[in-house]
Write a structure and sequence with these properties.
Layout lengths: L2 E12 L2 E13 L5 E4 L6 H8 L7 E6 L2 E2 L5 H11 E4 L11 H11 L6 H10 L15 H13 L5 E5 L7 H17 L3 E5 L3 H5 L3 E6 L2 E2 L1
Parallel strand pairs: 3-8, 3-9, 6-7, 7-8
Antiparallel strand pairs: 1-2, 1-4, 4-5, 9-10
Helix pairs in contact: 3-4, 3-5, 4-5, 5-6
The structure holds adenosine-5'-diphosphate (ADP) and magnesium ion.
The site of adenosine-5'-diphosphate has 12 residues, from strand 1, strand 2 and helix 1.
Length: 219
Amino acid sequence: MIIKIENMSKSYLQGKTTVNALKNINLEVEDSQSMAIVGPSGSGKTTLLSLLGGLDLPTSGSIKLRDKCISSMTEEEVVEFRSENIGIVFQQFHLMPHLTALENVCLPLEIMGDKNPEKLALEFLDHVGLSKRADHFPHQMSGGECQRVAIARATVTRPKILLADEPSGNLDTETGIKVMDLIFKIAEENQMNLILVTHDIRLANRCQKQVHLTGGLLK
Ligand SMILES: Nc1ncnc2c1ncn2[C@@H]1O[C@H](COP(=O)(O)OP(=O)(O)O)[C@@H](O)[C@H]1O
Ligand SMILES: [Mg+2]
């Protein structure tokens, strides 16, 4: 089992009110299985993905990835586990604005201790069709190009788990389709577990498993 979530809840304290973003989630994903998380806006999709990425902690319950309980790791352990096992593609790209495309893709390799990451990073920029944009900064690229750089950055370490949060949500339809095709292709070629948050039922249908979130409850 690549992912096992048990009795997991997440609430946010906002001023004096508590927002129960996720309620008693139980979920299992098998090795090499792809999964779509669908649900309306505000249903907890991004919250679930950020918990899976170890970017935040659950309020209760446990999250196991590759049989390791990330919800009880120290911050340093989570950072190390994430850098070795997880790639994340965000809706808003989240590239480092002051780094070039190539430097953005080098970053996760450098974090893993690679002293000469350029060759592999260039290879991955080439995978996403952007070797000619290596020296461009994010503001010099289109949204679709930025997202392709972000895909190269998320996959260059060949993580077992690839998390993607509405990756085509900020792109026009045609560019979005190309970006999604690329994500599916790279995930398949590298036997990554793709966990995809999407509104698009056709994209969800391309995943082997689908779960629905409504008001923080999983169906
Ligand atoms: N950092 C936060 N602080 C307070 N409330 C939050 C925070 N992040 C998300 N929420 C709330 O949690 C619920 C789920 O949000 P989210 O996971 O972003 O939903 P989705 O991605 O499905 O649109 C929403 O009600 C949202 O307002
Ligand atoms: Mg969201």
